[in-house]
Amino acid sequence: MDTSLKVIRGQVQTLQLETPKPKLDAVLRIQGYKDPNKVRRVIRESALTAIEAFIENTVPTVTYRIVDVHSVDREGAVLGAAVKLQSEIFQQYLAEAKEVVVFVLTVGKQIDDQTIKWMDEEKLVEALFLESAAWLGVEDATKQFVLKIRNWAMQQSMRISRRLGPGYSYPIDGQQVMWDLLDQRPLFDLLDAADMPVTLLESSAMLPKMSRSGLFGLIPR
Questions:
Q1: What does residue 85 show for φ and ψ, rounded to 5 degrees?
Q2: Which of 116, 163, 169, 202 is 20 to 30 Å from 38 at the Cα level?
Q3: Cα–Cα distance between 16 and 2 in angstroms, integer?
Q4: What is the pTM of this model?
Q5: What backbone phi and psi angles, to 5 degrees, belong to 198?
Q6: Fold type of domain 13-220
Q7: 84: which strand partners?
Q8: How confident is the model over 124-164, as pLDDT tens digits?
């Protein structure tokens, strides 16, 4: 498996990431078990079953592209030729960026399929733990991608901004400012969505469910 980052400016790239291996204690804590040592054996076994299913079924991939920042103002940012993203956050976080890395990451459709299968079989505890393991997997895969992008940026005498994603809020002048989830559409347009393993629904939610989108600014040092 080639997990090396390839960067061709303007072109959409897809990278397979290493399989995350969520820790049992972390999965239990997500579900409110503050002291894993006090968890009943049957619960621990269900969580372990879910973790094993996640590791066996996940195919973490990220689709990404580097595009120019055309302009940034209080209304939003224009990327590439004419793709408009609307939020005040960009003036705060992308004002110095010359380019951005746009990405969509997923741990794969198989996780959704297994969750649905277990729910149909009324294995609700296992399904719940599988979702927890999958979100930890998304975090791990994101960190892998961030590290690769950061290392590449350093070689180009650049640094990266914080990760920004539609549907999340970011601090500006002591207030939380939202980047509207509806901006998923122009973000996907930048990535030639027809060739991605992630589908954008009319609601702006993504399938597979265990997916993440966003961008990083590339800022000259």
A1: -115, 135
A2: 116
A3: 7
A4: 0.91
A5: -125, 135
A6: NADH Oxidase (3.40.109)
A7: 78
A8: 999 999 999 999 999 999 999 999 999 999 999 999 999 99
